[in-house]
Each structure stands twice: as structure tokens, then as C-alpha cells.
Amino acid sequence: MKTRILYISALLSAALFVASCKKDITERNQEFPALAPANIDLNADTWVPILTGASTFTVATPEAITTPNYLADLNEIKSYQKNLNSEQKDIIKYWSAGSVLRWNEILRELVAKHNLPPYQNDNGTYPFPSATNPLAYPLFPFSNPPYAARAYAYVSAAQYDALVQAWKFKKSFNRAAPYKNDVNVQALVPKSDLPAYPSEDAVVAGVTAQMMVLLFPGDLDYIQKKVAEEKLYRLMAGANTRSDWDAGENLGKQVAAVFLARARGDKANLAAGVKDDWTKFETVATAAGNTPWISLELPHRPPMLPLFPNVTPILLPAGTVAAIRPAAPFKEGTAEYEKDMQEVMAMSNDHSREHERIVAFWADGVGTTTPPGHWNAIAAEEFVKHNYSEVRWARNLALLNMAEMDAAIVCWDTKYFYFNPRPTQMVAGIKTLTGIPNFPSYISGHATFSGAAATVLGYLVPERATEFIAMANEAGMSRLYGGIHYRNDCTVGLTTGVKVGEFAVNKGKADGSN
């Protein structure tokens, strides 16, 4: 089974052609009920933040509710409420589902927009997205799974810290919502005893918009449009005054500065590597007597983010990535390897309808939110049922997405440490049900992401822990059913993801939120 082939499918070529075109943001907003937290988590000011525990932030003391400025703010709200049109009512309905939820949706939309690998140049090379020129082709960023996992993690963690800091000022100033200070202000969202100053929605919008400066610089106009829309919603709904909003947005920007400094120094900007890096992986694998992975695209595409293992984890302690790295994959010619290869070939020749369904459901390829985004959507659907407060929403998504980012680092470390070829490289004629990713086989990224996500979600929603692990197992096995991974890639990936997820669980148990 040492035959090496180049396998190019018409479907893959078509996908790459589509990737060469500019893609607009396609909003997939679901309808959700207005957020009415069962518990406002007023003690969240005592929760342990991710990065900002030792930071000092400032928020101006609010004016008294009897001052002319505050009364003018109330009058602004009442003027909006006199003449609400259908579009404005739709804005209120949309954002009332929750700021963290809606910004998570927006982030997933941006990832899907940018999850398009560049088409090759005429000379057979491939262009790289550039943060210094984000609007040139190919658009920056290319939101492949590791980049997407990092984006989800930084945004969610920054939102969580911003809200913890906001809760401190809320308790300190204790200024009620406009609808509690003026009987003529209508509450067009569920009423809450949570202090309104600074605005929690504004804090989330402020920190998120600033994070986008780094993560999606070409979409800042769209992001600012969403910020303005959310601000208008809070005023029209009677939930915040303009001064509530301004204080919150300013605080969010202060918190974002801490996370932006961290992100700019985490070595993600070097993850693409250069040709010498790719050649070294191949040389090391050959010297060890193994068949090195090669790109199955023509022309050969550079491997996806081979230096992503060097990115600084957001959750794992130093040195943990190598410690978690699993043992080597089955070596070619061994009984274990032959058994796994025969299974791939058998599935290639006999796809069941159920396997086709599973492969399609978990494909998460080009133009999608990626596997981490898929698990964010699963989490969002679940969290809505529990009526969490904004700060708990943010905390839960931060745990999930920090685990996903570090799972990406551990998975990519394993992939490039062993540089193991996929089944389709080793045997001609394997029929796949999904695209062949452009990076080594062992371990499965889908399985690793899913093991981490299921572990965190099982901790957050323990009554569904068994179901989440079953979903993670199905996600991992979908790559075997699709003909692009060995079983061992999937089972070891799942186990490795669970190990990463346990670090997030331990952090959650110690953050004071329970």
C-alpha cells in the first residue's frame, strides 16, 4: 500500500473556482424569544475573568436621574417610541434575543464568508491573504478551521471579561433602566432588576467591534452598522439611555485592548510558514521510514497553517501541547494499519444512506462556519433553552471556544509532527463523499474539535452529556464514512479533544460562577 497518487476531483475544482470569487455576508438569523434570564447573576462581578483580573478600567460616574441631561435622554427614548415603524420593531425583536447570541451569529457569518481557499495563480503558486491589504484578492482572512477557532475564542473570551467588568460598575453605580425611572417609558423587552449603567449590550458591542479590527479588518463597515443597529434597539426598547450605552461601549473598548495585545503576540501571524518549513516536515517523515503527506491538489497547494502548533494556547499551560500529543499513528504494513485501510476501502465501495447523511451533516467545509462554528450553533440552540444571563452566555461560550482554539493547536501539532498521509494518497480509486482537506491525516480535526466541544457542553448541560459525546463520536466517524480518514485518526482525535476540553471544564469549575 505504498502507492502514492494524485487524486483531483471535479467537485474540488469547482469549489476552488467558487473560492476565487468575492463572497458577501449571508445572514442566517434564526428567530429566538426575547432574553429573559432566569437568574441575572448579579454576583458576576466576583467571577474570575480570563485576562483582565489585574487590569484597571474606568467608567465615568453617571449623572443623577433628575439632571437635565438624563431627562433629555429619557425624552429621546419616548420620541422613538411614539413612532416605531415595522422595520424598527423587527430590529427590537432581532436584538432582544440577546447580544452575545446575536454577535456569535454574526461572527459565524463572517467566518463562513471568509472560509474560501484562494484559487491558484497562473504560474502554479497560491496567493496568501494579507492583513495589511485585506480587501485585495484573496480577502483577509482565509477562515480555515484553526483561524476560525482562534477568532471564536478571542471574541467570546473578550466578551466574557468585558461583561464581568461591566457587572462591577453596574453594582457600584446601581442606576436602574429607563423604564423604571419614568412611567412613560415603555419596556419593549422583558423587564430586569439588573442596573442599566453601563449597558451590557454596549459592552458586548464595543469589545466585539474592536476585536474585529484584528480578525476581520475588511468588514469593519458591516460591524459598525450592526453596532449602530444594536444601540438604536436599546434606546427604542426603553432598556438603556444614550449615556448608559456610551459608558458601556467605552468600557468594552478598554477590555478589547487587553485581548488585542495578547492576540497580536500569539504567533498566529506566522502560522502559514514558508516552503522550507514544508520541506522539513517531508524530510523528517522520510528519514523515519514513513511516507510523507503530499497535497492532492494540482498544482500542489501549500499545507494549511503548518506552524499553527506554535500559536500560544489561550487555555492550556505552557508545555501542555506536546504532553497531550498522542502516540504515533499505525505504521504502514502493520496489521493495525492494514485493518484500518481495508475499512476505508470497504466504505468507499459501499456507502450507506445513513453514512451519507452523517457525512453531509458534519461536512463543515468550504463556505461554512467550520467545525468549531458548527458546535457554536449547537451550543446556542441549547443555551437558549436555559434563559441564561448575558454574562453567563458569554462565560459558557468562552469556555467552549477557548477549548476549540487549543484543540486546534494540539490537533495541528499532531498533524505536522507525524505528517501522516491520508487514505486517498495511499490507494488509488477511493471514492470520497466530501472534499479532501489540504493537510495531514492524523489526527482528525473534526474529531478533536468535537471531543473538546462535547466535553465542555457536557459540563455546562450535564443532563445532555451523553448525547453530546455521541454527537462528537458521530462527527469524528463522519470523516471515516467520507473516505478521508482512518478510524484511528477519528478515535484518537476524539480522545485528544476530550483531554483539551477537560482543561476548560476545570477552569469553569474554578471561576466562581457556580
Quick check: average pLDDT? 94
Structural class designation: mainly alpha
Q: What do we call the CATH topology of the largest domain?
A: Vanadium-containing Chloroperoxidase, domain 2
| Element pattern in H and E | HHHHHHHHHHHHHHHHHHH
Number of domains: 2
* CATH second-level architecture of the largest domain: Orthogonal Bundle
Helix content: 55-70%
Note the main attributes of this structure.
514 residues; mainly alpha; Vanadium-containing Chloroperoxidase, domain 2; 2 domains; 19 helices; elongated
Outline the structure in words:
The protein has 514 residues and is mostly helical. The protein has two domains: 10-23 and 270-318 and 328-509, Vanadium-containing Chloroperoxidase, domain 2; 42-58 and 66-264, Vanadium-containing Chloroperoxidase, domain 2. The protein contains 19 helices and no strands. The protein has helices at residues 10-19, 68-82, 86-95, 99-114, 145-173, 178-181, 200-215, 220-236, 242-264, 275-287, 320-324, 335-349, 353-362, 370-384, 390-418, 423-426, 445-460, 465-481, 487-509. α13 packs across α18, α14 packs parallel to α17 and α17 (445-460) packs antiparallel against α18 (465-481). It is elongated, with a radius of gyration of 24 Å. The termini are far apart. Mean pLDDT is 94; it is low at 1-21. This is Phosphatase PAP2 family protein.
